[in-house]
Write a structure and sequence with these properties.
- The protein has 497 residues and is α+β, with helices and mostly antiparallel strands.
- It has a domain of 196 residues: Alpha-Beta Plaits (2-Layer Sandwich), CATH 3.30.70.
- A hairpin with a 5-residue loop joins β16 and β17.
- The protein is globular.
- The chain starts with a strand and ends in a 20-residue tail after the last helix.
- The C terminus is likely disordered.
Length: 497
C-alpha cells in the first residue's frame, strides 16, 4: 500500500443559500488583479442551469477529463499528440465569452462630464480593453433562473431525461432549483497535471493540493482544456495559468480557506483522508457503473492499525493521521455514505464531495385543475422530489439512481428520527422501518444531525498542523528564486523601472 494524505472537502447543498459570500471572499483575496478579472476560483451555480463557463459539463464541446480505452484511460482533449495538433489553435478551449467579458462602469463621467443638455451616464467599459461595451453576460447571469429557456432548459444533465420528463420540470407547480458551489477538486487523478507539457502543474505530496509553478508555466493552456470542471484559468496579463490553491498559506497556519471561513450557511467541511495511491490507475480505468463505489473504496480507515503503520512508513506524520481520524469529511463520505463526487464519469477522482439537497416535494394538479400540496405523511416520499432521480444521478453518480436513492433514504431517516425526538408526532413504526431500510441507527442519525446542524468551527474544519522543519527545507530549496511577489503570481514589469 502506498498510503498518502489528501485534504478533502464536503459541501452540504441542503444548507447553501446562494449568497455568494464565498465567491466574493475568494475574489477579494486571490483574483482581484489585472488579468484575473474574469476568474472565479469559487463560484456558485444555479441548477438546473448551464453554469460557468457556459455548458462546462458538456465534454463533447470542451473535451475535458479522461476517457476509457480498453483497460486504460487517456486524456480526452489533451496529451502529446492531441496537444501538438492543437498547439496553435485549440477549438475545445473556452473563450472569454464562454466565461463572460468583465466590465466596470465609468462613474467618474458623472462628475467630470462637461456641462450640456443631456444627462451624463456611467457607461459600461471593458476591464480588458477599456472600450465601451454592451453587457451580454456576467459571472452569475443565470442566478436563480431555474425556469428559463436560455439557461435551465439547456442544462446538459437533462440528457438522460425524456422530453416529457424535461417538460414536466418546467410546469410552474413543479419548478425548482438548487445551488451548486464549485472550487477546484484537487483530484487524485488530475487531468490538468497530466496535460501540462512543461510540467508546471503538480500535486503536493504532503496534502495533495494541486498547484501551478508560475516559474515553469509556459502558457500552453492545455490544463484549461484538460480540466473537465474548468477550474484552471489563463491570466492574459502575466501569460500564466492560474487556479484555486485551496488557500494553502492559510491551511499552513491552521486557518480554514477563505471561502469556507466566510460561508454564511456553514455548508463547508474540510479534513484529511488517507488513500492508497497504488489503486488510482485501476479505479480511474474501471467501468463507469463501478466508478463511484471504487472511488469511495480508495479512501482507507484511519483507525485501522495496518493503515496507520503503512502511512507512518510512507512518511505521513502522526498529527496528520490523528487529523484523519477526526475528519468530518471521512464521516460524511465513508462512515455515513452521504456525500458524493461531482461528475465521477470524468475519471479525475475529485476530492470535493456533495451532500445532495432534500428538495421540496412536488405539488400536484389533478384532472380538474385542482392544486394539491398535501401528502399522506409529514415528509413526502423521495419520489416526489421536484428534481428527478435521473437528473441528480447525472450530477453525482454517473447515472446510478440507486446510489442517489440510498443517500436520500439516509437523509430522510435522519429528518424523521429527529422530528420524533423533538416533537414525537410521527409513527414510530414508520420511522423504524425507514431507518432499517437506510441502515441508519439512532446514534448515527444523532451524529449526522449534530455535524450537520450544531457543529462547531473546529468540528467542521480539522486541519493538520504543518511541520516547521519541512517548511524550512522548502524555503531553502527555493531560495534562489528572485522577483516573486505574493505566492508566485508575478506582475509584468512596468516600462521605465
Amino acid at each position: 500500500m502506498d498510503i498518502r494524505s489528501q485534504i478533502s472537502m464536503v459541501f452540504h447543498l441542503d444548507k447553501c443559500i446562494g449568497c455568494h459570500t464565498c465567491s466574493v471572499a475568494c475574489k477579494n483575496i486571490w483574483t482581484d488583479r489585472k488579468g484575473a478579472e474574469y476568474m472565479w476560483w469559487n463560484n456558485v451555480e444555479t441548477k438546473p442551469g448551464t453554469g460557468y463557463p457556459t455548458k462546462w459539463e458538456d465534454q463533447e464541446i470542451y473535451k475535458g477529463g479522461w476517457e476509457k480505452n480498453g483497460s486504460s484511460i487517456s486524456l480526452k482533449g489533451a496529451g502529446k499528440l492531441k496537444g501538438l495538433k492543437n498547439i496553435f489553435h485549440n477549438p475545445n478551449m473556452p473563450v472569454l465569452d464562454d466565461y463572460y467579458h468583465p466590465w466596470r462602469y465609468k462613474y467618474e463621467d458623472l462628475f467630470t462630464a462637461p456641462e450640456g443638455d443631456d444627462q451624463p451616464i456611467g457607461r459600461a467599459v471593458s476591464m480588458i480593453t477599456g472600450e465601451p461595451m454592451d453587457i451580454k453576460a456576467g459571472p452569475n447571469w443565470d442566478d436563480d433562473l431555474s425556469g428559463t429557456p436560455d439557461y435551465a432548459r439547456k442544462d446538459t444533465n437533462f440528457k438522460d431525461l425524456s422530453p416529457g420528463e424535461q417538460e414536466a420540470m418546467f410546469q410552474l407547480e413543479k419548478m425548482t432549483m438548487m445551488y451548486l458551489p464549485r472550487i477546484c477538486n484537487h483530484c487524485l487523478n488530475p487531468a490538468c497535471v497530466a496535460s501540462c507539457p512543461s510540467g508546471a502543474l503538480y500535486k503536493r505530496g504532503e496534502d495533495g493540493i494541486v498547484l501551478i509553478n508560475q516559474e515553469r508555466c509556459r502558457a500552453w493552456r492545455m490544463c484549461v482544456t484538460a480540466c473537465p470542471y474548468k477550474k484552471s484559468y489563463y491570466n492574459w496579463n502575466t501569460g500564466k495559468s492560474e487556479k484555486c490553491i485551496l488557500c494553502y498559506p492559510r491551511l499552513e497556519t491552521g486557518q480554514a480557506p477563505a471561502c469556507m471561513h466566510s460561508c454564511v450557511g456553514r455548508i463547508r467541511y474540510l479534513g484529511v483522508m488517507l488513500y492508497d495511491a497504488d489503486k488510482i490507475q485501476a479505479v480511474a480505468s474501471c467501468n463507469e457503473n463501478e466508478l463511484v463505489q471504487k472511488h469511495m473504496d480508495i479512501y482507507l480507515d484511519p483507525h485501522d492499525p495496518a493503515v496507520i503503520a503503512a502511512a507512518r512508513k510512507n512518511g505521513v506524520a502522526d498529527s496528520t493521521i490523528t487529523a484523519a481520524q477526526n475528519s468530518p469529511v471521512y464521516k460524511f463520505v465513508k462512515e455515513w455514505g452521504l456525500a458524493l463526487p461531482l461528475h465521477p464519469e470524468f475519471r479525475t477522482l475529485p476530492n470535493l464531495f456533495y451532500v445532495p439537497p432534500m428538495l421540496p416535494a412536488m405539488a400536484q394538479v389533478d384532472g380538474e385543475g385542482v392544486y394539491e400540496t398535501t401528502s399522506k405523511s409529514l415528509f413526502p416520499s423521495i419520489d416526489q422530489n421536484r428534481l428527478p432521480m435521473k437528473y441528480l444521478a447525472s450530477l453525482f453518480t454517473a447515472g446510478d439512481t440507486d446510489k442517489v436513492r440510498e443517500v436520500y433514504d439516509k437523509l430522510l431517516s435522519v429528518k424523521m428520527h429527529r422530528r420524533n425526538v423533538t416533537v414525537g408526532d410521527l409513527s414510530k413504526d414508520e420511522v423504524k422501518e425507514l431507518m432499517a431500510v437506510a441502515k441508519v441507527s439512532a446514534d448515527t442519525a444523532n451524529a449526522i444531525f449534530r455535524l450537520t446542524s450544531l457543529a462547531t468551527f473546529d468540528e467542521r474544519f480539522v486541519i493538520p498542523p504543518s511541520h516547521r522543519e519541512e517548511a524550512i527545507e522548502m524555503m531553502e530549496a527555493t531560495a534562489d528564486y528572485k522577483g516573486e511577489t505574493g505566492f508566485g503570481f508575478k506582475e509584468k514589469p512596468q516600462r521605465g523601472l
